[in-house]
Design goal:
three-stranded mixed beta sheet; seven-stranded mixed beta sheet; about 375 residues; single chain
């Protein structure tokens, strides 16, 4: 019980107890929340094997080079009945001619051309709404023009997660593994976000999805009024809409590696910072319960590291602090490793403590600078 005596004898006892409270909150999140994804097992309840027709919706603005590489993979899914709706949002490159050519090759490709720039609020919500209205089938599967599926079974795997009561299926949108530290950081950040939204969905508190790989019912979209409640927010066509309509009873996840989509990550830190800042702008529009839970996780994470470093500088017993840190790290290694296996990620496990610290700092900086930024883009 030397560790307890070290706590009692310390003049910084209050700070140590706060640190232990932060540790306890973090351990509860990892074992009780993230552990749901880490140890996830698909339900053994009988699921209908009926393959309902599906409309895949893709929005594109000046995406010729991505469409020419990736759209044929989406059009070649091993599925009996589906269509691919591509909305060409006033592109200025050769997207129009490419889609016209592909529509002659693939009868299940439907092209919707927006010839004038009518998107006064910017963002993807206007063209996506047009695509959803143009879709023939009630089951919608959304992805981006710069994404490609893990294989020809992607559509079937995502659709298989729907049951009679299911209105939303949350998939994983990964980034293609490449060389370099930035790529590993981006993939860790993506995994960390997925651990949160998939685990909380499994805990009965779904709050977001990613537009790179997301499915929901067309009826659900229209009954909620589409994006009307947050239309002026540039981003949020995925997470804000899901935050509005997702409930315990109508949301499921599909974490199978066969159901993953991939896209190329940003190639420099500046571009990634801008993307990260844009994504952070939507958190303030989440429902209060989601803001509380996510805020508690982030606050306990930041408080843990801040107090740990402060107490080390104050000269508190290093063995006590090392033991506290190791307890959290061991927990993280176990849960993060299993989540990586579940979602098909690899090659950055040993770097995650450094990435975690870096991302905390980045989020704080971007959150502060975002208060003074009003720049929008598609």
């Amino acid at each position: 019980m030397a560790w307890l005596q070290a706590i009692l004898d310390s003049q910084w006892i209050i700070l140590i107890w706060i640190l232990l409270a932060m540790l306890l909150i973090q351990l509860l999140f990892y074992w009780l929340v993230f552990g749901r994804l880490a140890f996830y097992r698909p339900s053994r309840k009988p699921v209908s094997d009926v393959q309902e027709p599906v409309s895949i919706v893709v929005c594109a603005k000046n995406e010729y080079h991505n469409l020419v590489k990736f759209l044929p993979q989406i059009l070649s899914q091993n599925y009996p009945e589906y269509e691919v709706v591509v909305v060409n949002d006033a592109s200025e490159d050769d997207t129009f001619y490419l889609l016209r050519e592909l529509s002659e090759q693939y009868s299940h490709l439907k092209v919707v051309n927006i010839h004038q720039n009518l998107n006064f609020f910017k963002g993807k919500k206007f063209p996506l709404s047009i695509g959803i209205r143009s879709a023939r089938y009630d089951t919608l599967l959304l992805t981006d023009a710069d994404c490609y599926p893990a294989g020809p079974g992607w559509l079937a795997k995502m659709q298989s997660a729907f049951t009679g009561k299911t209105g939303i299926v949350l998939g994983y949108g990964a980034y293609t593994p490449q060389g370099g530290l930035l790529n590993k950081l981006i993939r860790f950040d993506t995994l960390h976000v997925a651990m949160q939204y998939m685990s909380l969905a499994l805990a009965g508190l779904p709050y977001m999805g990613v537009g790179r790989n997301l499915a929901y019912r067309k009826e659900l979209f229209f009954s909620a009024g589409g994006f009307i409640r947050h239309y002026k927010v540039t981003s949020g066509d995925d997470d804000l809409f899901i935050n509005e309509v997702a409930r315990r009873s109508n949301t499921r996840i599909q974490p199978s590696p066969e159901a993953v989509t991939f896209s190329k990550g940003k190639q420099n830190f500046g571009a990634w910072f801008r993307q990260k800042r844009r994504h952070l702008t939507t958190g303030g529009f989440y429902r209060p319960v989601h803001q509380f839970v996510l805020g508690l996780y982030s606050l306990s994470q930041l408080g843990f590291y801040t107090l740990l470093i402060a107490l080390a500088l104050l000269g508190v017993d290093w063995m006590l602090l090392s033991g506290i840190l190791m307890l959290r790290l061991i927990t993280q290694f176990i849960i993060v490793k299993r989540c990586m296996i579940r979602l098909g990620e690899k090659n950055f496990l040993l770097l995650f403590p450094f990435f975690e610290l870096f991302l905390m700092i980045v989020s704080l900086v971007l959150g502060f600078t975002g208060l003074f930024s009003r720049k929008t883009q598609w």
